[in-house]
Amino acid sequence: MWTQDTLEEMVARDLEEHMERVELAASDEEEAKADIVPTRKS
Q1: Cα–Cα distance between 36 and 31 in angstroms, integer?
Q2: How far apart are CA 27 and CA 15, in angstroms?
Q3: Is the entire prediction scored with pTM above 0.90?
Q4: Left, alpha or beta for 33 (phi > 0: left; psi -120 to 50: alpha)?
Q5: Cα diameter, the chain
Q6: How far is CA 5 from CA 2, 9, 19, 32, in A?
Q7: Which of 19, 20, 23 has the alpha carbon at shortest distance from 31?
Q8: How does pLDDT run across 1-18, given as a tens digit for each residue?
């Protein structure tokens, strides 16, 4: 049987991993947008 502490720890860990993935996805999108923007070469 799960204790409240164990459940909270699991949820916290899952949330932390999820937020890391969200941050990685957001930074990948920013890089993708930056790659799309044409650079002007003089």
Answers
A1: 9
A2: 18
A3: no
A4: alpha
A5: 68
A6: 8, 6, 21, 40
A7: 23
A8: 889 999 999 999 999 999
Amino acid at 23: E
Tokens of 28: 């990948």
- What is the Cα 24 distance to its own chain's centre? 4
Distance CA 27, CA 20 (A): 11
What would the two tokens of residue 33 be?
Answer: 């947008």
Element (DSSP H or E) covering residue 7: helix 4-36
CA–CA–CA angle 27, 33, 39 (5° rounding): 125
